[in-house]
Amino acid sequence: MSADGVFNEIVHSPLRLRICGLLRSVDELDFALVRDTLGVSDATLSKHLKALITAGLASSTKTASASRADSRRITWLRLTKSGRHAFDEHLRALRKIAGGYDISPTHSSHRAVTSEH
Amino acid sequence: MVSDESGNPRRVSQVFDELQSDRERLAEHFRAPKWLAPGFGLIAAAYVATPAFPGGQTDDFVLIVALVACILLVSSYRRATGIKISRFGAREWALFAASVLSSWGLLSVSLGLAAYGFQRWIAAPAFAAFALITWLASLIYSSMRERLRHVS
Q1: What is the ipTM of this complex?
Q2: CB–CB of B12 and A32 under 8 A?
Q3: What pLDDT does residue B8 have?
Q4: Domains of chain A, with CATH numbers?
């Protein structure tokens, strides 16, 4: 673990960063829920997930759904151990870049706490 | 390599804003189904009412049924919400411990009532267990939801 974090180009792509941000907070998320939360299409989400899965940062599993009459299955998405590590390092690197900006968790509290860099 | 835009503190701040907004939207989806907390309350009530049941092997049977019911409840709510989250924070662990200890305490009351032959009065600690565990389960869920809301 680096004190300054490690910038990760795969994670940094805006949508992939948001996907990782959602998955980091939980064990697993339903594909449909990630799609709806991010407001993107199935195809767009699949494309970015493929990049994360290919890089070994995320994984997916499918389970049967009793609530669905047809053969569709729930796709559960999760970050792998290296994915969680890469995301945490990337956030650390971003915080380092942010410098004097307060990026505390409360959404409304983002503000410059020092003079402009 | 960090691009010029990525290296801009203001842009980075916007990135964190987006992550925070996503988390808040996700937390909105993390709403407990109405049956979840009362379901745990019913399981606790059945466990506390065990001394009122006839037969010698009832304790183990009720405990096993209660555990299976808990697993089914958790599995059902995961499917209902599309979110699997199992990590507890300090507050959730404290509330969980309070649930277990209060269930044991109320079970002791039931056992005492059964020992003195007041079988019908066991309904009182059973009802108390239902109310208390329903309340504690909803607190645990709310606490998890709040934790989910924030980017750490």
Answers
A1: 0.74
A2: no
A3: 76
A4: 9-99 (1.10.10.10)
